[in-house]
Records
---
Amino acid sequence: MIQRDARQFIPNSEQALQDTTLQTALARAKSGFLGKRRKAIALVDDFEFLKQQAQAAKQRALDNIPALLDQFEHNLNAAGGQLHRAATPDDLNRIVLDICQRRQAKIITKGKSMVSEETHLNTALEQAGLDVVETDLGEYIIQLAKEPPSHIIAPAVHKTRQAVAELFRHHHALGERDLNEISNLVEEARQMLRQRFLAADVGITGANLLVASTGSIAIVTNEGNGDLTATLPPVHIVTASLEKLVENLEDAGAILEVLGRSATGQAMSAYTTFFTGPKRPSELDGPEEMHVIVLDNGRSDILQSEFAAMLRCIRCGACLNHCPVYSNVGGHAYGSVYPGPMGSVLTPLLEGLNQGHVLPNASTFCGRCAEVCPMGIPLPDLLRKLREQEHRQQLDSTGWRMVLRFYSWLATRPRWFHLAMRAITFTQRLLRDASGTRLRVPFSNGWNRQRELPAAPDATPFLQQWQKQQERKP
Amino acid sequence: MTTEPAQPPLVALFVTCLVNSQRPAVGFATVKLLEQAGFRVEVPPDQTCCGQPPYNNGLTDEARRIAKLQIQVLEPYDWIVVPSGSCAGMISVHYPHLFENDAHWQERARRVASKTRELAAFLAQQGVRFAPGPDTPTATAHHTSCSCRRETRSHTQADGLLQDCLQDQLKPFAEPEVCCGFGGTFSAKFDALSARMGSQKLDSIEAAGARTVVSADLGCLLHLQGLALRQQRDLQFRHLAEVLADAEPQRENKRP
Ligand code: SF4
């Protein structure tokens, strides 16, 4: 079993590499995401310009968060909505529960919200006896499977079509039917969910943007389930994190320009809806109450730290899709809510270095994440900074620490360093096998478990050979 | 070590710890290429390692100390040429960052950084060209390291040089922009993952019909070679410097 523990990344990833069903699902997802994004970006004249606009919009907001939150609250109140500030995940869950209990709610429908994953909201609601139904198709699938999401925009991306059909057969008492086509699966989920939409007492959604100047929230989806969740039940609760704030609609637009293209390769997602307060007296539909809960969970501190750039993240998922580590092991191996490069930065920041310190090491620093990130987040640099903190807090392995310290000691003393190099080449000569191409070592380690150690062809290092040659020269 | 005006510029070869111990031939090939291009070459004897192993593992203080030594050793030269994208990237991109709180050393780091080039970038900058030679390999794939692609950004220059010398024997393969899984200590700490990524790289190289893999980074090459040996794949691995040194230099390679 893959463990939901970020410290278990190595055993988790090794298991994921052996899981052939997972590998099939990952390979299919990757080629889909990459191709679509490439095409969408090729269609715009100057994507770099759009990126700069989006980054500037977000930076303006991050530079002014407390004031923008006040402004957002003011305008939300004016529209009839209510703002709640949640310092911790527990605070957020409690606020949601209070609202549900006051409304004597029984059935809750939910649109996709990574923030609610971060606070484990579903568990809290279910423990309180509420019936929670995820309405995003991917979220619905993993809810049935009792699994966490494995991707921030495609939560069930690790599931093959066959696995989903099996799940549906098991959970929906609908008799014999054809579930071989994706369209059959979607239709069946729609049938099941429609009844719940109408019966729900409270709808909970996430938000992609909080617009300070209007008090609006924006939800971006491709299924329209977010809109139904927000408008059908009598109460709409929005769970969002602090950095979703933007100054105004123009800045919101700048971010939407890069979000859809980076995420799903769409110029604009199928549904991009702005909600400003609950139903007004003159209106026919919409909720009676609208609550926006803004989660901090350490973000105000991150904003003041050397990791502030991470809060520019708009959760597009491009860094996951382009990461050679993520695309080989999938999201569950990370054992955390947020996987991939952005998750490897966020997890230690949100859950503490003790819990998350392995993840920043799970990168070759290939730099592809930073290359595709529309928000210009220097992910490898942030990962390296986390490794620095890991080392400073002595959370790195003692063995590696000793080896690297000794190596560094040598590397500042040329005489000793070059003696050590000679010792290395000399030892290799003793260990070469008959063919002379590989080394035979009597122990197994990270280098030779899955590969051979290629042998150095020469008995002395380059520098010694070079110096000898120079001395021989007239 | 000051250069007189009449003399050709003086290049320091920063040979890298891997080339120094594992493939001295790459060092000699680099010297040959630089001399062919009309430069005087010295190999500063007190150079050690660029400091990536500690730097990438969070031992920043240690990396800083190592960087100071290399800066002192390298600053007297007109150019510093490195037969590795990752070590060249360390010096030219990361050294100045290491001294963000130390104006004096940052200035020295910047000056060294501005004179440091990955080998292919340096040769291309000098306008050298190559034609196939008698020992030029056939059916060859060029694996660009991520540091050459995204740090020194010299992959197109290496592609250009190899295109001249390999011609139709340079075999394009799928997803060249994806990492091979080496990543320094990553390859040992996450060996299963690293091996999977490397095997995928070798699969696409073989699928393109290539039999030789050339790269400007010895780390990638040794990792891939180690995998190929274990998996009994019939592939040869050569450093860019070796392939170019075996090629036929064109006349314009000589400085006037
Ligand atoms: S870090 Fe960048 S690429 Fe990754 S999800 Fe966030 S915005 Fe998208």
Note: The domain at 130-249 of chain B is CATH 3.40.50 (Rossmann fold).
---
Amino acid sequence: MASSRILPEFELLLPQNIKEAVSALGKLKSKASVMAGGTDVVISCTKGFGSPNVISLAEIPGLDYVVYDSKKGLRIGAMATLQQVADNADVKKRYPALQRACAINGTPQTRNMGTVVGNIMRASPSGDCICAVLAIGGKIVLQGPKGKREVNIDDFYLKYRETACKADELAIEIKLPAISAKNAFARMTRTTLDLSKVNVACSLVMSGKTVKEARVAVGAVAPTTIRLKKVEAILKGSQITDEVLQKVVATVPTEIKPIDDVRSTAEYRRDVAGVMVKRIILEALGK
Amino acid sequence: MKYMLSFTVNGAPADVAVGPTETLLDVLRDRLGFTGAKRGCETGDCGACTVLVDGRSVRSCITLALTVQGKAVTTVEGLARDGKPHPLQQAFHDHGASQCGFCTPGMIVSLAELLEKNPEPCRDDARAAIAGNLCRCTGYVKIIDAAMAAARSPHKKGGPA
Ligand SMILES: Cc1cc2nc3c(=O)[nH]c(=O)nc-3n(C[C@H](O)[C@H](O)[C@H](O)COP(=O)(O)OP(=O)(O)OC[C@H]3O[C@@H](n4cnc5c(N)ncnc54)[C@H](O)[C@@H]3O)c2cc1C
Ligand code: FES
Ligand code: FES
């Protein structure tokens, strides 16, 4: 019996290694989507608004690694799932912000399917892993016909859903630095299944009670996930007193440009983002 | 253009010629007659289509069939052992955890994965395991009761292939 579904047309390519994938993408360019876990790509395709070609990474062996090295930091391969990263002992210990962003991402099934790299590449302003990685810092390793290059996450998101990844490049892995920074992530949703109406993450390098370096990221309040540079400047060199935290809460709304949409209102997002940043700073410091 | 998909469903080999656009749910239901997995939202949101691929629960409605080449798929039909229902199936029956039953196969498959990973779950573990399975009838309490009863069952290791 034929399928009961009306199927939109697209072609599926299953390259057996990275070279084949890069060469297929080099020919098709913007006429193809790269697919990792497919939790986003397949929905677009079966609903008829996807690319005419899908290049799946499913049959390329050895891309599902999560490895930590005390000098080089963490490397996450393009096919490592959200669940794998959430379960990884080194991620739990050193990158709790990323662990949390993976552990709360969608449902048990979409965590078994979806990848961290897919989350980064999807470039949604509400992407939970994006927020965590932007706070921790990291690099996206891209491969195209001319070879490999690395792009700092700070330079990766250009505008709404647009990244520095070119049409003939695919992401091989992401790299996070070996850090001693205290980091944490939190998000606000209506139900566990929802996408974030606001998400926040921070990473703080401490020297005793004083903040030496600070990175603070917030998502779903601007066309891309952004770092809060003014808040970071307030934190740097300060001790986390009530006064400093009040200043942070008051500054957050001046750095974001939220909109009204199905998940929330601009007004609510503006109010809640500051409080969330404050809480996440306290959480990172174990307070 | 069709391609040959060779995989196993509930332990038995299956070879099907499928198109690139067909999902695993299409192939299971419409080609192979495994109608246990249900077609709900088709956007990955409701969990009715949940099946196991190599022991891990996935959404078959957003899995392209050709990406499970060579893998082992288990549907709710494959959980019984030696003609006896899986302890979760028995417990759903005993505890009134199904009403219309549309969500039941997905619930049972999600919980089967939980029991494989964690044979002694608490109620919160069971709640987390079905966080992606929507039920419009039961209010979930009896489903959790059934999950806990199945976890206590001495036969729970009858689990998925
Ligand atoms: C029910 C449901 C719940 C969800 N909940 C959340 C949530 O809570 N938080 C959240 O952030 N997201 C959520 N998502 C969105 C999505 O599942 C995640 O972002 C997931 O991590 C995407 O990973 P994937 O491997 O499935 O991506 P895919 O669907 O395979 O790809 C996503 C995008 O990235 C591109 N891409 C993927 N891999 C590469 C690569 N290696 N190189 C180049 N481009 C690539 C694809 O072309 C596509 O544009 C949810 C989705 C569903 C269906
Ligand atoms: S039918 Fe697959 S999740 Fe709803
Ligand atoms: S029993 Fe009807 S949807 Fe769950």
Note: The interface with chain B takes residues 1-5, 7-12, 14, 35, 38-39, 42-43, 45-47, 54, 56, 58-59, 83, 106-110, 112-113, 192-193 of chain A (CB under 8 Å).
